[in-house]
Design goal:
With 175 residues, the chain is an all-alpha fold. It has helices at residues 5-8, 12-18, 28-50, 54-67, 72-127, 132-165.
Length: 175
Amino acid sequence: ILDPRLATARYGGFLRASLPPFWATTDPAVARDALRRLAAQATAVEDAQHRIDVPRLVADRARIVAVGSSSEQLQAEQQRSLDAIEQQLEVASRLDEARNILLAKMQSTVIGLEGLVARLAEVLALSATAGGIDTAHGQISDLNGELDGLRSGLAETEEISRKALGPQQSPPATA
């Protein structure tokens, strides 16, 4: 959480004690870097997608099917070509799905973080008023659950992109 009031306000200790253990940072750049890594993974998936010329593969498949042959040897070669085309089309489909999942998870994470910022601002405002600490505790518990969900979503998104890209293209871990 990047709000300095957690460190400076008199109620900051109460709020910090109510939150679950999480990766703490006071540097907004660190939080942005986590989302940038996900964006880089989405870009890597898109780059891999661009290496597969789907329209050409579809045209090649149609041409091979249309040619036909009475020769067993030619039929076997055509079948190998068709199998290779189908494998490439399946890879293209998996990459497309991985990209869409990455983008959707990034979007939901950003929207979720924006919502948490708004709710935390509300909790901080309520806790600054008389008696606000009692009502803030329940709201902080709700925020705990949402934050855990966002964390899980980010971890799941990184795992999806690692599977799509393969282990050799996984992003480096940050401290």
